[in-house]
Amino acid sequence: MPEPLKMTTSGDREVVIERRFDASRAQVWRAISEAELMQRWMLGPPGWSMPVCTVDLRVGGRLRYEWAHEDGRVMGLTSVFKELVPDERMVATELFDEDWTGGETLVTQTLHDVDGGTLLRTHILYASQEARDGAVKVSGMSSGMEAGYARLDQMFAEGAVAA
């Protein structure tokens, strides 16, 4: 059974997030790399949708997310893929449109076999300690991510993500 995500800080600019899923690495890879799947689970807390999600899954390719809240708020993010090893590792830069994270971040996601499932480890390197601390304290990042991961757990349980 999956446990809630674990978030820790490392060094002066880093956040490490770990979350275990009852799914294979191939299934988790699909969930973090295919637009039609991400639009179903990567929504954060209730009230949000993702009307725009485009993925050009190649080194140098871009990823674009745009979230919309039922109250009219919008949030957008653009990523550029730096490294891709299917079912193992994804490295990308990320920059929010309204740069509330204090500049571009470098996000490394790795997949690990563990206890009959997969551990997704996300390492985020911020431009400064202030940017990291602000993202952790102000954004509600961990609760929003966990809400999305709980949706993903349900998708895995329902067989909605093939290996």
UniProtKB/TrEMBL annotation:
Family annotation (Pfam families): AHSA1
CDD domains documented for this protein: SRPBCC_CalC_Aha1-like_9
Every Activator of Hsp90 ATPase homologue 1/2-like C-terminal domain range: 22-156
Database matches in InterPro entries: ASHA1/2-like_C (IPR013538), START-like_dom_sf (IPR023393)
Family statement drawn from the similarity comment of this UniProt entry: Belongs to the AHA1 family.
Protein name: Uncharacterized protein YndB with AHSA1/START domain
Protein source organism: Brevundimonas lenta
